[in-house]
Design goal:
The protein is α/β, with parallel strands linked by helices. It has two domains: 152 residues, 3-Layer(aba) Sandwich (Rossmann fold), CATH 3.40.50; 67 residues. It is built from nine helices and eight strands. A six-stranded parallel beta sheet has the order 5-4-1-6-7-8, with helices on both faces. The chain has a two-stranded antiparallel ribbon with strand order 2-3. Helix 1 packs across helix 3. The longest helix has 21 residues. Bound molecules: magnesium ion. Magnesium ion binds next to loops.
Amino acid sequence: MTPHRIILWDIDGTLLHSGGAGEAAIIRTARALYGKELALQEIDYRGRTDLLIVRQIFTRFGISWSEESVAQFRNTYLDYLREEISHASGHLFPGVERMLSSIAEISGWQQGLLTGNFESGARIKLDHFGLGRFFGFGAFGDRWECRNEVARAAFDLVRERWGESLSAQQIFLIGDTPHDVLCAQAIGAYSIAVATGGYSLSDLAGYRPTLLLPDLEQFGPVLSLVKGHG
Ligand SMILES: [Mg+2]
């Protein structure tokens, strides 16, 4: 059956705060592989794909870009991420789990991921918080540096799965950064911005998301938006 609505979720800052596990894993990876100290504020992680973060680090330390060097970084990072997340003090944001459960029960609605995380990194984070079961598909940050490309891949993927007649007007992206809003706009989808990830309501308002919320505690407006469009 063709779903009527596709809801695509960002992870960090939207579903959960990893308690700094992702950043700590990146810093440890740079130290282990290159013997370099990366300061937290040197890299802007928010809304960036993991591949773009690797690009920034390689540029910073003069590491040459190749399939092998990227794979080495990714694999080392994933090992550290598993370790870091097990003792980080992360948490889910308010309302997230209730909203995921509510949507999961609506027939004809599908939830997936649209995240800058490497696919395995996304799974590590979601499984740690018990959210993996909500997501049967997704587009990830393994292949593209630009989030708009990840959004296009997500659009292609849902049309492959549910038919070419599926339009961008049936797709709703939920995220916490301007990049999430912009990538929704890039594919003509609706955007729901939440101010849980470090960008304020007024920062986000400037990018004109379809819907803007402080968090997902009261997610009624999201359900109304999704029901009313597409
Ligand atoms: Mg995010």
